[in-house]
Amino acid sequence: ENTEDFNCMFCYCPLYLLEECGGNYIYYHGVKDCSNCLVPHRPKGYDYINTKLREEIERRKMDNK
To answer: For labelling alongside 14, which of 3, 35, 41, 58 has CA 20 to 30 A away?
Structure first.
């Protein structure tokens, strides 16, 4: 709708592999369908994605200790 606020920085979602990505997705035959999700396209999407990825990295570091 609002092309000024639509961000296409990511041509795929870096959060796809996270079950708790925060996006609007459904599982269809075992595949995550994110076609209705706008998380990476919102104005603050870049910051949100970076935060989620940093949290996941820290979680995995703690799991490996």
So the answer is: 3
